[in-house]
Each structure stands twice: as C-alpha cells, then as structure tokens.
Design goal:
The complex is a heterodimer of chains A (398) and B (678).
Chain A (H helix, E strand, L loop, with lengths): L2 E2 L7 H26 L5 H9 L21 E7 L10 E7 L2 E6 L2 E6 L2 E5 L10 E6 L6 E5 L2 E6 L2 E5 L11 E7 L2 E6 L2 E6 L4 E5 L11 E7 L2 E6 L3 E6 L4 E5 L8 E2 L11 E7 L2 E6 L2 E5 L4 E4 L11 E7 L2 E6 L2 E5 L4 E6 L6 E7 L2 E7 L8 E6 L3 E6 L2 E7 L2
Antiparallel strand pairs in A: 1-19, 2-32, 3-4, 4-5, 5-6, 7-8, 8-9, 9-10, 11-12, 12-13, 13-14, 15-16, 16-17, 17-18, 20-21, 21-22, 22-23, 24-25, 25-26, 26-27, 27-28, 28-29, 30-31, 31-32
Chain B lengths: L4 H33 L8 H5 L7 H6 L6 E6 L5 E6 L4 E6 L4 E7 L4 E6 L5 E6 L4 E6 L4 E7 L4 E6 L5 E6 L4 E6 L4 E7 L4 E6 L5 E6 L12 E8 L4 E9 L7 E3 L5 E9 L14 E9 L6 E5 L10 E6 L5 E6 L4 E6 H10 L2 H7 L10 E6 L4 E6 L5 E6 L4 E6 L4 E7 L8 H9 L12 H4 L9 E3 L9 E3 L21 H4 L2 H8 L6 H13 L17 H10 L16 H4 L10 E2 L13 E2 L21 H6 L15 H13 L3 H17 L1
Antiparallel strand pairs in B: 1-2, 2-3, 3-4, 5-6, 6-7, 7-8, 9-10, 10-11, 11-12, 13-14, 14-15, 15-16, 17-18, 18-19, 19-20, 21-22, 22-23, 23-24, 25-26, 26-27, 27-28, 29-30, 31-32
Classes of the chains: A mainly beta (398), B alpha+beta (678).
Chain lengths: 398, 678
C-alpha cells in the first residue's frame, strides 16, 4: 500500500500559520456552533441532557474485542464560560485526584466538588494562556506551561520561570512533563530540563541535540527516557541514565510520498509523544504512529478509525492512546478504535466504534462540545477533553 | 666618673639616628593609620591591627581560640540529659542536667545547627550545615552510627508523627529534605520559603510549620513579605504558605500545647524609609508573629520592643507545657523576654482588625504581655524546656555556656560551663560586639540584624540619604572580605576601620561611635572570623562539569561569537579575576539610576555569588540571569548580547560554582605542584 503524504517545509511562517489555525479554530469555535446548529442548547439544557443516561450508550459493552474491551465514554457533560470556565477556548486538561485542571485562553480553571475556580495573572500566573499542565508524582506540585513562561503551583503559590529570570529556553511552553525530580518543557526555543533538586536548567536545541530546529511541541517520559516531539526533527529520545540523545526520523525524508508504511515516524513534523504500556505513541499533523521498541506502525484516517490525520495532542493511558484531532477525539489500542464526533447541527454526536475493522456508530446525546480537540486526560472512570469551544467530561460506560 | 669622648660621640650618633628614624617613621605611621581609619586620632599601635587581623599562620593560632559557640539544644524525655549543638566545635555536647556537668563531646559534621531526638529517645539527629548531611548518633554509645544526605545547608529538623521520616530544613537551597529513616535515603525535596531555618510539627501532628528568614525577592518599593511554609505530614507534600507582611528573619516557631496558635520570631525592617531616621524608631522592630491555626486564622504581629528600648534579634521561642508562658531569646540584647500567653489571647480577642494591624508598629503594647526580661550571657540563641516545663535552658552562644532559668521565678538559677576557652580574644570580642545591639540608638539593631549569619539579609535599603528612594543599597555579604577593599558600592571606604568608624555611627547607629579598642576588635572579627560555606550545591566535587567549563571559557573569553575582539574593559575576567573575582576597582556597568548620586561602582567580589540574590547595587536583578537579560542592553556589564541562551546558561552555571577564595588558592597550589613535579 502506498500512502500519499505531502512534505511540509519547516519554515517559521508555516508554524505561525498552523499555530494561528489552532488559535483561530478556538476563536471561531462558538460561531461555528451557533451557525451550524441553529439553536444551540443552553447551559441548563446541556446539563440536564448530560445527566440522563442514554440506553443506547449503555449497550456498548458489545463492542469489546476478544481480549480487552476498548473503553467507551458517554454521558458527556460539557462546560463553558456559562458554567464558570474563564474561556471556552481550552488548551489542556489534567486530572489530579479529585481535582481537574483546565488550561484555557484566559487562565487556569480548577474543577473540584462540582465547582470551577479560576486563576490568572492576578493570582501570580506568568500568562493567562495556559497550554500544558502536568503534576509531579513525587511532590504533588503542579507544573503549568503558558504562553509567557512556566509556573510551579505548590501550596497555592505560583513560582514563575521565564526566559529572562531563569535558564528557561523560551517563554512559549507547549509541553511540560514531570519525571521524578526532573521537569521537562517543550518550548519555542528548544527543550528544557529543570532539575528541581539542583535547581539547574539545561537547554537542548539543534545546537546540542539531534534536532532540526529549536521548536519543540510536546514531550513525555517513560522507560527511563524522555521523548521530545521536535518540529521537523521527528522524535528525539533522551536516555536519562546516559544523557545521550538519539532521534527517530521519517525515513522518507522530504519525499512527498510515503514509500514504505511502518518504516518509522509518519512524519518529521511531530506534535506530541506519549509513552505507556511499553509503547511510544507519536502524533503529527499527518497521522499517528507507535513504536514498541523494535517496530514502527503508522495509522491514518483513511485506513483506521482515526478521526483525522491532523493531531494536536496525544496521551496514552495504559494500552489506550487518545488522539486530539481537528475532527474529533479518537482512541485506540492499536487495533480497535473509538472516535467521538459532534454533529454539525446540534449538541448531539456519536461514538464510532471500529472493532476488528467493523464500524458501528453509537449516538451520543449530548456529545463532546466541539470537534477541534486540543487536550485530553483520562483516569479510571472519567475522561476530560479540552476543545476549542468548551471542556467535556465523559463517563466510562461499563 | 669620666665618660670618654668616643662614647659620647657614639651615643650622639645613635640618638640622632633614632630621631632621624622616629620622626619620619612616626609621621609615616600616623599617615598610614589616618588613611586606614579615616580619622586622625586613632592610637598608633601596630599590634592592634597587624596582630589581630592575621587569619592564618602560627601567630594567628596563638592569638585566637577555638570556641564551642552553642546554638541549639534538646532535652531528653526524662530531663536528665541536655544535648547541646556546638556550632563551631563541630560537636554535640552531652550534659548531665542534674549535675550541670558536661559528660562528653561527640564529633559531628561541619558547622552543626540543630538537634532532635528520636521518639524512643535512643538516637539524636544533628544537622550539619556545612556538610549537607545529618549525623545520626546512638545515644547509648555516644557514637555517630550513620550519616544522612540532605540538600544544601541543613538547619532545623523535625520528625514525622510516626517517627519514620526526618524533615531537614535546607537553609541555603530553600527546600526541605524528606528522609526515610528506615532506608536512610532522601525521598524528595519540597520547595519552601526563602532561606528557611526552623520547623515544628503541630501538636495535633498533622502539619509542619517551616519558618523563613529571607523575604520574597521583589522590586524595591514593594513591601517586604516572607513566606512560612506548611507541610502536610501525611502526604509529605506542601499544604500551603502563610505570608508575614513587612517582616522577615523568622528564625524559629513554637506551638501552644493546644495547637491553637503558632508563634514565630521576626524582625520588621523599615528598609523603604531612609535609614538615617533611626533615631525616630525607623529602622528595625523585633517581635513575634501569631498564626491562628483555625481555618482562615489571623496572622498578627506583636512587638517585643518598648518605647526607647528595643529587643533586637529574636532567635528562638518555646512555650511552657501549660501554655501560659512563652520565652523568646533576644540574641542582640542578651536577654529572654517572657510573654504571658493569656494576655496575648485576651488582647487579640478584644482587638478589632484595625487595632491588630496597628500593634505591629506600636511600641506601647508590649507592656501588656511581656512580663519580664531575664538577663543572660552573651548572645542567647536556642531554647529548650525541661519536660515538666520548670526549667528553661538557654544556649548562650558567645559565652560558651548554658543558662538554666527557673520558669516560675523567672530567674537564672545556674549556668553550665561547656568547657570552652576562658580567654576572650580580640576577634571574639569583636564578634560579641557585632552580634550586640548595644551600639545602636536604643538597641534598635545589631550588625547581625542586617548581616544574619554574618552574610547579608537580601534586602535593599535607603541608605545614607535623607530623601526617600535615593541611593538604594543592596546589602553586601561580609564573608571573607579582608582582601576586597574598598568597601561600599561607591568604594568610598578604603578599609573596614573607616567603614565601621565614625561614618558608621553618623549614618547608621546614630549613637556614639565605637571606642577605638572596640573598633579594632570588630574589625579584627570582620577581617578574620567570617568564612564562606563550602559551595556544596554547585561545586561539590571540585571538578567542573563540561557545561560549567564551557561557561568558564565564556567568562574568560577575549573575542565574541563573531570573532571580534572584546575590549579588555568589557571582558568579565578583567573586572572579576580569581580568587576574589574583583579587581577592586570602580566601574560603570550601565546601571546607575536617576535616583543615584553620580558614582562608579566598586566591583563586587563574586565568591559564592549564588547565595547573594538579589544582584546589582540596588538589587534590581532578582536572579543572575536578569543581570544580562534585563539590565545590560548595551553590553556595558560585559559583552553578553551575542550569547545564545545555552551559552548564557552555561556562564551562569559557572558563576554559581564560584567558591571561597581559599578554594582558588588551593587550586593554584595544586596546579603549581603538578607543574613542578612534571
């Protein structure tokens, strides 16, 4: 099978265009919903609908494959500014026990005991555009990446690191990841490593790491390694014990077609990585792939249940990876798929379940709040989704 | 008797020779002393200066002594033993509390700070501030049985409620090490307030309260704010922060037995108003912070000071088991203040929020709760109560002894000599003067108040000017400054004698200047008795990392990244050469503010510079990075604008490794020996 693929030059202009597209998607999110649906539901209506259990949703047990069933989420509840969010444009979400942190365009929102509380620059954040969030399992500190620096939120206090006051590489923080005592950031000026014990920064760019350029989008930790999604550089792997780098590049290089499937990352322009259950998952704007330590495997919207090849963010939890695309949320265990999409004309939507190649649609009422998905996190019973027009919470259907 | 002509001639020649030498010699000596002291009547005694400012060699050993300098102490559960931390003796001294006699001295690490006893009373844990570890002592054998690694500069210690975890407060790295006592391993480091020292577990055994000495670094003009940190003992995580407004130097904390109140010691600096107003009571106040422990509990500050009498440098606080009395050691005025806790409770109960706010600046309130001032020996520091609360033990740091106070009669009933030298050397006398507020108007503050640990307090003062906001001065460290003259940011004081002489009394203390013997003594101490802590945080192995070496090369470079030669006056290394990293000259680095007099700046020494934030003469740079990212746009503070962020980071990593001058002298010797043997 030959897979067509357009090679994108890694010019700053293009990056700006894509970044602008993401932001504008957020800006137009509300407009799209109103114009498409014609009669959008009120907050109360959405809330009421979400509290009702759909008989159709509860029948999804049947979609399980032979071994372990893919989790399917339903009973969606959507949150917007009407519910207390500072902005409908949500960029990141992270679950931490009984709290959920949502990064929005206008501040950090924290959901606890059914209520939202907002934190902004007035509370000490370095910038209101909250793009990425992670929690240190060691100290419990929350690390928040913004469009104006990195912040450690500990005991209610924000301690800010910027490119001017610290060794931070750059103030545009697209990804943050805690690994033991270390905090890693993916920024517009390279990847940064902060040793919280020694209070020491290291910066990695194309000058001292096998990167194409300093622009990095996401990162994750696992198996004693850090996996950096570097613009135009594929995946940069850093082994913490040896402090050595290696890179995984698309063997097709600048070619416009993918000569061989499963020959490496699907593209050198990567947007995120996530390591779980012995597998590295890598997202790009041109498809999805994973690496089990020996083999790469690629997934595209035309040959799998993936909603779109344009993936903004990825997070793997256990054997399941969740992909935030511009056309819905997809999840997969590598074989089976569940994709959540909202209808264009109302608040309802569907879950498209692909089991062993067989597709089945399950109506959802309501659905996720928007199809342009930017962030996701899941725990045992819930999934939270950050979209360009609100935040959605789904319950695991058992 | 006939005297031969020859002898008369010889005598005459000798007299003439003597006079020839004496008059110009005397004149030279006079001129020399006048220059050194900035006055014309300082006694001409060579020994006063040249003998007592020697810090190394056999003569220095002869004129100096090794003191114990007790700082903190703990009492055994049965009250029979005292365990005294001898800060400069590098030992834990065991005292028979019934006989008031020293039993033994157990060697520990460098510059020990605090001691806690295990819940079963079998072990003592001693924090070693200059070794970055904790000594575990088996009290049955009086032997060190283990050493636990910490972060930088461990001071206060506390055990978890279950006794399984030791919390070590790391003063220099501003975090707390959480150490698993079963494995002896440090589990994690929790980031706490700036320059923390004291720690206590609350009586309900849920929260640990950590005090901080330094304020949050903020631009001049912002009120001083200092963070106290709460740690959840169950989760071993940060629970929250409580802020002391307009106060800092919170050394220690104590809880009432019921746990309703935590009391911390504090200093209220008036650094935003001209320091010259000291005679108006506008420089320092000393007091306590009351932290109500209930939800949304108030934070109230009460002064220990009285009208016309200040009680400088409160260090430790303990509260009796019945919760009725609190004792605070006022290290700068050699006394213990006794506080009636019921009076304090009554006062804060009946007071409106406005009244409570006013108490923080009201000298007239302390008479309502301070029931007695108990005189002590020099520089009372750590306090400990006997288990029944009937005796208070006081570590008299510069007296090398422990005072025993009857808590009911509030009288000193005995003292325990720790066995240190009996002789008070000139340098020791200087240290006693340094730590005592007796030379400042109404005892308002001591040298130590602005130079805690003989270092600096991290604040910027409005110094030597009658106008608000003019000539701001970032307090400078006093560590090993003997070879870094001139002094002051404008370099106007060529010697410490001048710095601490008449100008000092005119500008700062607003009282009589030091007598010349006192001036000689305090100068002797400053020039010989203040050392750099080893830089264990950034230079622990004495071998620079590759990144630090690259940073060193940038620091010493002569060409920029384009290959262009950097003018010598714009190279880092020109103004900051080892071992003191100052060329002792004046320079313009482009940071003169409109509010400054037109001056050049004395190039500061950079040893242990990582420990001296904020930076620049007026403290405008909160971090080393900001010197170049914010305040050197035209490369006047060395050429750095061509550096990439990686290169700037590496240069700063190198700067953080800068250690004591001794370190560089020894490196030089090592290199010389290597070269000679090759």
């Amino acid at each position: 099978m030959r897979i067509m693929k357009i090679t994108i030059k890694t010019s700053p202009m293009l990056k700006s265009v894509i970044l602008a597209f993401i932001i504008l998607s957020g800006l137009t999110g509300n407009m799209e919903r109103v114009s498409a649906s014609g009669s959008p539901k009120t907050g109360k209506e959405i809330s009421k609908a979400s509290n009702q259990s759909s008989p159709k949703e509860t029948s999804v047990k049947a979609v399980a494959n032979d071994s372990k069933p893919m989790p399917v989420y339903g009973r969606w509840k959507n949150f917007t500014t009407r519910d207390g969010l500072p902005s409908d444009k949500a960029y990141a979400v992270r679950i931490n026990g009984n709290q959920v942190y949502v990064g929005t365009h206008d501040g950090l929102a924290v959901y606890e005991n059914g209520k939202w509380r907002t934190y902004t620059t007035k509370d000490g954040l370095p910038h209101n555009g909250i793009v990425t969030i992670d929690v240190s399992e060691v100290t419990g500190d929350v690390w928040i990446g913004t469009l104006g620096g990195l912040s450690r939120w500990s005991g209610g206090k924000f301690e800010n690191f910027t490119q001017l006051n610290s060794g931070m590489p750059n103030d545009l923080v697209y990804g943050v990841c805690c690994a033991g005592k270390d905090v890693w950031v993916a920024t517009g000026g390279g990847a940064g490593h902060y040793d919280t014990n020694l209070k020491k920064w290291e910066i990695f760019t194309e000058k001292n790491a096998p990167m194409h350029e300093p622009w990095t989008y996401g990162l994750s930790a696992g198996d004693g390694k850090i996996f950096i999604a570097a613009w135009g550089g594929g995946v940069i792997e850093y082994t913490t014990s040896t402090k050595k780098f290696r890179d995984y590049r698309d063997p097709d290089g600048e070619m416009e077609i993918d000569l061989l499937p499963n020959d490496g990352p699907v593209h050198d322009i990567t947007t995120g990585t996530s390591w779980a259950d012995g597998k590295l998952w890598v997202s790009s704007y041109f498809g999805l792939c994973n690496y089990d330590g020996t083999k790469w495997k690629g997934y595209f919207d035309h040959d799998s249940g993936l909603a779109s090849n344009f993936i903004n963010f990825i997070r793997a939890e256990g054997r399941v990876a969740f992909m935030c695309t511009d056309q819905g949320l997809s999840s997969t265990d590598g074989t089976n798929w569940v994709t959540y999409k909202k209808n264009d004309n109302n608040a309802d939507g569907k879950a498209i379940v692909t089991t062993n190649g067989v597709k089945k649609e399950i109506p959802l009422s309501p659905s996720i709040s928007h199809n342009f998905i930017i962030g996701v996190d899941a725990d045992k019973d819930f999934i939270w989704v950050a979209t360009s027009s609100g935040v959605s919470r789904g319950e695991l259907l058992k | 008797m006939k005297i031969s002509t020859k002898k008369i001639w010889i005598l005459g020649i000798l007299v003439a020779l003597g006079l020839t030498i004496y008059f110009p010699g005397h004149q030279f000596a006079r001129a020399h002393v006048n220059y050194q002291t900035g006055v014309e009547d300082h006694p001409l005694s060579c020994l006063n200066c040249h003998l007592y400012i020697l810090s190394t060699g056999p003569i220095a050993k002869m004129v100096n002594e090794d003191y114990y300098s007790p700082i903190n102490l703990a009492v055994s559960k049965d009250g029979s033993r005292l365990y005294v931390v001898a800060q400069e003796g590098n030992a834990l001294i065991t005292v028979d509390a019934n006989q008031n006699k020293v039993i033994n001295k157990i060697g520990v690490g460098e510059l020990p700070h605090s001691v806690v006893l295990s819940n079963d009373g079998k072990n003592a844990y001693v924090s070693n501030q200059w070794s970055d570890n904790v000594s575990v002592i088996d009290l049955s054998t009086s032997k060190v049985v283990d050493t636990l690694q910490t972060a930088n500069g461990p001071a206060g210690l506390a055990l978890s409620a279950d006794g399984k975890v030791l919390y070590a407060v790391n003063t220099y790295s501003s975090n707390v090490s959480v150490i698993d006592l079963e494995t002896g391993e440090e589990q994690k480091r929790l980031e706490v307030g700036n320059n923390p020292t004291g720690i206590k577990l609350s009586p309900e055994k849920k929260l640990l309260f950590v005090t901080s000495r330094r304020a949050i670094i903020a631009p001049y003009g912002d009120p001083v704010k200092t963070e106290m940190t709460l740690i959840n003992d169950s989760s071993r995580r940060i629970e929250g922060f409580k802020t002391l407004e307009s106060a800092h130097i919170a050394e220690n904390v104590a809880f009432t037995p019921s746990g309703d109140i935590a009391v911390v010691t504090l200093v209220r600096p008036k650094n935003l108003v001209p320091s010259i107003q000291v005679e108006r009571g506008f420089m320092m106040n000393h007091g306590i912070g009351i932290f109500e422990q209930k939800k949304d509990g108030r934070i109230i500050q009460l002064l220990l000071d009285e009208p016309n009498a200040y009680y400088a440098d409160p260090f430790d606080v303990v509260i009796t088991p019945d919760g009725k009395k609190a004792f605070v050691s006022n290290a700068g005025v050699d006394c213990i203040s006794v506080l009636d806790m019921d009076s304090i409770r009554a006062l804060i109960t009946v007071s409106t929020p406005e009244m409570l706010n006013s108490y923080a600046n009201n000298l007239g309130v302390s008479s309502r709760y301070v029931v007695k001032r108990i005189p002590t020996g020099s520089n009372p520091k750590g306090l400990a109560l006997s288990p029944d609360g009937k005796k208070l033990y006081v570590a008299e740091q510069l007296q090398d002894r422990i005072a025993v106070i009857n808590t009911e009669s509030m009288e000193t009933i005995s003292t325990i000599d720790l066995g240190g030298p009996k002789k008070i050397t000139v340098s020791r006398r200087g240290r006693i003067l340094f730590a005592n507020a007796g030379h400042t108007f109404q005892n308002q503050y001591s040298c130590y108040t602005c130079h805690p640990d003989y270092h600096e307090d991290g604040l910027v003062y409005n110094m030597a000017s009658k106008e608000m906001g003019r000539n701001l001065t970032n307090t400078q460290s006093l560590r090993d400054i003997s070879k870094t003259a001139p002094f002051k940011w404008n370099g106007k004081n060529q010697t410490v004698y001048k710095q601490d002489g008449i100008r000092f009394s005119t500008v700062l203390t607003r009282t009589e200047q030091f007598s010349y013997p006192d001036l000689d003594a305090i100068t002797s101490f400053i020039l010989t008795g203040i050392f750099y802590p080893p830089n264990l945080q950034y230079n622990p192995t004495r071998e620079l990392t590759e990144a630090q070496l690259r940073g060193k090369a940038i620091f010493e470079r002569t060409v920029d990244n384009t290959g262009k030669e950097i003018p010598p006056e714009n190279r880092c290394i020109t103004c900051h050469p080892a071992p003191y990293f100052t060329n002792r000259k004046l320079a313009d680095v482009g940071t003169l503010a409109a509010t400054d007099d037109s001056i050049l700046f004395d190039v500061p020494h950079l040893n242990n510079i990582y420990a001296s934030s904020p930076y620049l003469h007026d403290g405008r740079a909160a971090t080393l990075e900001e010197i170049w990212t914010k305040f050197s746009p035209y490369d006047k503070h060395g050429v750095a604008n061509d550096l990439s962020k990686i290169e700037l980071n590496e240069m700063i990593e190198y700067l953080k490794t800068l250690s004591s001058p001794d370190y560089y002298e020894s490196l030089k010797k090592e290199i010389h020996t290597e070269n000679t043997s090759n």
